[in-house]
C-alpha cells in the first residue's frame, strides 16, 4: 500500500511541480513594482528561478523529514490556488513547487526518478496549452485578469492536484517505516551546487537581456536578439564539469528547451487534447527505462527542431505535429534514458526548462511579423528562418555530442568536489 501511494505522490506531485514552475503567473497576482526593480522580476522566468533554487536547496541539504518538506510545498501551492491573492504569490507558488520537487527528488532517489522525471516533463509541456485552453474556455470572463486580487478566482487545476499530493504525502508518512532519504542517496558536491545556482542566474540574466533588447527597440526598426546562444556552450561546459556521467541529464533537459524554442504553446480546442502530452510522455518514460539510448531521443528532438523551418501553411502542420506529437515522447525518453544522476543535478535539470524558457534567437519589430507584400502560401522560408532553425538544430546536436562523450566516462569517475 505504501509503495502505491509513493508512486501516486511522485507522479501527481511531480506533475504539479512542473505545471506550477512552467506557468506560475496563471491565476496569481504578479508583483507590479516596488521592492524588486523592473518587470524582469515579475516574469515567470524569475519566479521559476526562485523555485529552482528552492528545489536545489532541498535536494542538496535535506536528508531527513523529506516527506514533511514535500507536504509543506504542496500546501503552499494549495494556499496560492485559493481565491484571493497578494503581491508576491507568484514567487510563493514557485517556491512551494520547488520545495515539492526537491523533496520528491530526494524521496525517490535513483530508482524512482524515472516516474518523477516523466511527471515533471508532462507538467512542463502541459502548462502553456492548459493555460491557453482555460483562457479560451472562459472567454466571456476575459477581463478577470484585471479584477482586484481579493476577488481572484480559485485555481481549479492547482488546488485539486496539490490536495491529492498532500494526502498522498500524509499517507506515505503514516505508513512508511521512516522519513529519510534512501541509503544510496549521496551527499551534494560543490560543483553540483554551483551548477544548480548558476542555471537560475543564467536564466534570469538572459531574460533581462531579451527584455532590454525588446523594449529598447524603436517602433520603426527591426531587432534581433542572439544572446540565447550563450546558454548552450555554458550548459555543455557545466555538464562536462560535473563528476562522472551525472551531467547527462542536464544536457537532456537542455535539448528539450532548445528543440521547442523555449516553451511549447498551442491552443487545444477540447480538453481531451490536453491528455496527448502526458500519454506520449508515459510512453517515453516506459521505453526510456526499457531501452535507454538517449542519443536516439536527441535525434528525434533535432528533427523536431528542424521542423521549425516549415513556418507557413500548409507545411506548418508538420511543425505543429512535431511539437505536439514528437517532442513529448522524445523529451521524456531522452531525460529518463539519461538517468541516473544525483539528487541536486536531477532537481536542477527538471527545473531547467522553466528557468530557461527562452528562444536561442529572436527577431522582433513590426516588420518581423507583418510582411510588406502578400506572400503566397507555401514553403518559402526566409534567411532568418534558416538561421534560427539551423542554430537550434545545431545546438541540439552539440548537446548530443557532449552526451556521447560523457557516455565514455566511467560511471563512478570523479572529476570534481
Search tags:
Growth Hormone, Chain: A, mainly alpha, globular, 1% strand, 417 residues
How would you describe the overall organization of this protein?
With 417 residues, the chain is an all-alpha fold. The chain has a single domain (2-406), classed as Growth Hormone, Chain: A. Helices cover 62% and strands 1% of the residues. It contains 15 helices and two strands. Strands 1-2 form a two-stranded antiparallel sheet. α5 (113-137) runs antiparallel to α10 (276-290) and α9 runs parallel beside α13 (343-355). The longest helix is centred in the middle third of the chain and has 26 residues, at 190-215.
Uncertain segments: 29-37, 139-150
What's the alpha carbon Rg, rounded to whole Å?
21 Å
Structural class: mainly alpha
Distance between the termini: 39 Å
Query: Architecture, CATH level 2?
Result: Up-down Bundle
- Cα shape: globular
Number of helices: 15
Estimate nothing, just give the exact number of structural domains.
1
Strand order of the largest sheet: 1-2
The percentage of residues in β strands lies in: under 5%
How helical, in percent, are the residues? 55-70%
- Provide the residue-averaged pLDDT: 83
- N-to-C order of helices and strands: HHHHHHHEHHHHHHEHH
CATH class: Mainly Alpha
Briefly note the CATH topology name.
Answer: Growth Hormone, Chain: A
Q: How is the biggest beta sheet arranged?
A: 2 strands, antiparallel
Number of strands: 2
